[in-house]
Amino acid sequence: MALADLALNQPLPMQVTPADWPGGYWWHWLFFTVVIIAFVLIMVMGAIYLERRAMGRMQSRLGPNRTGPFGLLQPVADAVKVLLKENIVPATADKVVHWLAPVVSFAPVLMIFAVVPFQNGALLADLNIGILYVVAISSIATVGVFMAGWGSGNKYSLLGAMRNVAAVVSYEIPLVLAIVGVVIVSGSLSMNQIVAEQDIPYILVQPLGFLIFFIAACAEINRSPFDLMEADSELTAGFHTEYSGMKFAMFYLVEYAEAIAMSAIITTLFLSGWRGPWLPPWLWFIIKTFVVFFVMVWTRTTLPRVRIDQLMGLAWKFLFPLALINLFVTAIQVVVWPDISQWIFVIVNFAIAAVLILLWSKFFKLGQGRIEV
Amino acid sequence: MTVALSAKEIISQLNAKFPGAAEEAGADSVLVKSESLPAVAEYLKTAEGLKFEYLNYITAVDYYSYFEVVYQMTSLESNRSVVLKTRCYTRDNPTVPSVTRLWQGADFQEREIYDIMGITFEGHPNLKRIFLWDGFPGYPLRKDFNR
Amino acid sequence: MTTTREFTLKTEPFVLNIGPVHPSTHGVYRMRCTLDGEVVIDIEPIFGYLHRGIEKLAEERTYTGFIPLTDRLDYISPMSNNLGYCLAVEKLAGIKVPERAEYIRVIMAELQRLANHCVAIGSMLNDAGAYFTPFMYTFRERERIVDLFDMVCGQRLTYNYMRIGGVSQDIPAEFLPALQKLVDRLTRFIEEYENLLKLNEILLARAKGVGILEKDTAINCGISGPVARASGIKWDLRRNDPYSIYDRFEFDIPTCENGDCYDRYRVRIEEMRQSLRIIEQAMKQVPDGPVKADVPHLIRPPAGEAYAHIEAPKGELGYYIVSDNSIAPYRCHIRPTSLINLAALRQMVKGWKVADLIIIFGSIDITMGEVDR
Hints:
B: Beta Polymerase, domain 2, two-stranded parallel sheet, globular, C: Cytochrome-c3 Hydrogenase, chain B, three-stranded antiparallel sheet, 15 helices, 9 strands
C-alpha cells in the first residue's frame, strides 16, 4: 500500500517536467500558464452563464436569453459592462490597501490551479504535496477580503469582512480533516497520484468526508447558504460595496473562480478527476467540474441563509466532530485491514455516515439565541 | 359584534368614581376634562368589568374654537368599545396629558398629532416630530395653515 | 434561550444606519441601530420619507375624489383601503349597499388578502436569504391574481374600484370562471409551497424563536392582524366585529402561541387557505342586481362623525371621518396599521443580531405608504 512509500527515509523524486515534454522546463511552464489562465477565464464565463440560466429555470423564469444565441454572450456583456464603469475610490478609504485587495484575493485562486490535473500527468507542477499546497494557498484569499473590508472605510464592509474571516477560519478545520481522510485512503498528497489511485471514486468510499468537504467548501467560498458575507438583503453588498469598475470585476471573478477551483478540487479528490470511458480525459474533467458546480448552484437557489453564529456553530459543533470521527474510522480501516477490497468499506462507511448524521443532528442545537442586553 | 358603549352607560360609572370629569358628547362618546384624562383612562383600562386594554387609535380634529383629541379603546374579552374625547380651547400651545404610560402604542400616534396638529402631550418620553423635519414651520393639519 | 455576555475586551457600541434606501427594508424606512459587534442593543426608527400629506389632501377632495388617494396608502393591497374608506362614508351617510356589490366586495377583499400575503411571505423569505426563489414562486401566483383585477378594473396596482355605495363597474362575464380556475390552482400551490418550506431546517433555525412578541405587549401596543394572531390574540374583525356580509361565511381564524417569526409565517399561510374558502363560498352565492346604490357623485353626508374599520391583510385599517355636510370631508384620519404594528419593534429586536433584525422586520410586513401617509 502506498502508505509505506511515505516513510521519510525514501524521498520521492520531484517530477517537475515529464521526461517526454518537448522544449524542456520553460516551455512546459509557459504552456500550462497560458492554459490555466485561459481555462479559468473560460470556465468562469461558463460558470456565470450556467448559474444564471440554471437559477432562472429553477425560479420558474427564463434567465438571460437575449445576448447572443441562448444568452451565451451574457458573461461577455457583464464583463464589458463592469470594465466600462468608473473607478470610484471613497475619500475615507485607505488607498494602498483598497487598491491591493483585489490583487491579493485573485492571485491565490489562480495559483490553486497549478496542481490540478487535467489529464494524467498534465498539470503545471506535479508537487508531491499537492493538496497541502492547495489548502495553504486558499487561505490567502481571505486576507484579500479582509483588506477590502478594512480599506473601504465603510462600516458595512468591515462587518462583512469580519464575518468572512470568522467563517473561513472556522471551516478550514473540517475541510482539512476531510482531505486527510482521502489522503489516508489514497496514500499520497499529490493530486495526480490521488486520481490515479481512485479505482472506486472516493465519494463512495468516503461519503461523510465528501459531505463535510462540500459544506466546508461552500462556506469557504461564500456561497449560499453561507453567503452572509455578501448578503444582498442585509448589508448591501458586504465587503465589496465600495468597489466599482475593474476592481469589482476582480472580486466578481474571484467569487466564481474560487467556486470553479473548489469544484475542480472536489472532482479530483472525490469524483476520480479525469478518469472515465470513451471521452478524452480533459473533457471528463470539465464535465465533472460543471456537475459539481451545478450542485452548488442548486443549493444556492434552494436554501435560505444561515446566521453568523449558526454558521460557526455548524462548523465547530457539527462538522468538526464528524470529521474527526470520520478520520478515526478511516485510519482504522486502512491500517488494520489494508488488503480487503474497498467495496466493503463503501458499505460500512455509508452505514456509519447515515447513523452519525442522524444521531448527531438530534443533539445538535443550531445557534445561540437571544443575548441579554 | 363589537358593541359600542353608549355614553349613558359609561357616564354614570365614571361620574361615580371621578365626579364632574365626564359628560356626554354625542350619543357614543364621552367628553373628559384633560386634567383627569390619565386617571379616567387608567380606570377604564384596569377596572373589573371594563378592561379596555386595547387602544384602537388616537386622533385629533381642529374645530376652529377648540382642538379635540379622540381616543377609542376596545375590550377584547367583552367585545365592547368606548370613545373618549378631550378638548383644548387654546390655539397657542394646546396641551393634553399623555397616555403613553398606559398604552405603549400611543407613542407614535401622539408624536404624529404633535407633528401635524401642534398639540403637546405632557409626559411623553420622546415628543419630537415624526414625519416632517425638525425645522418645519407650522403645523400642517390645522385649519389656518397657509395653503 | 438567553445568555449573558461578559466583556473581557473593552468594546464600545457603534451606530449603524440602515436605510432609507436599502434592498431589504420594505419601502423607505430608516433605522439607526446601536450595535455591539453583531448584537443589536437599540434601534431608533425614523419615518417620514414617504409622507405625502394624504390626510390634509382629504380635506380638499370630494368624498368620491378621495378614493384614488386611498389606493396609494398601502399600495400592496389597495382594494382593502378602498373598502375601508367606502364603509366609513356609508356608515356616516347611512347608505345601503346592494347585495351583488357586497359579494363582489368580499371577493375582491379576499383576493387582495391572498395577493398581499404572497408579497409578505415572499419578502420575508427573501430577507431570510433564500435568494429570490420563494419570492418568484409567490409572485408568479400574485401575477395571476393581479390579472384578474386587471380584467375587472383595468388596473394592476391602484385599482380605484370601490365606490361609495358599491363598486364602480360590474364584473365581466369571464371573471367568475377564471376565478374558479385560480382558486383551484392556488389551493394546489399553497400545498406545494408549504411542503417546500414548512420543515426546512435553515428556515426553522432562522425564524423559530426569533423576535418573540408577547401577548400582553401586543395588546398594549395595539398590534393587530397576523402579527397579533401569531402572538395568541384571537381577534379578527371579520369575526369579532363583522362588516359587510362576513357573518354569512364560514371560516376559521388561525392563531399560534409563540409569537415568533415562524408563527407569523404560519398564520399567513393559513389565512391564505381560509381566504380561499371564503372566496369559494362567495362565488356560489353571488346574486344578480345593481352594483352601486343610487348615490350622487358629489355626496354630502349629514354632519357628524363615523369610524369604520376592516380586517385589512396587514391588520386593523380604520377610517375616522368627520363631516360638516359639505362636499369634502372635514377631517379624515386613517388608522395606520403598519405604524401601529411597528410600535413593538424595539422590544422585539433587542438582543438579536443584524440578520435577525432584518427578518423580524420583514415578518411584521409593513408598507411605508401606510406608515407615512
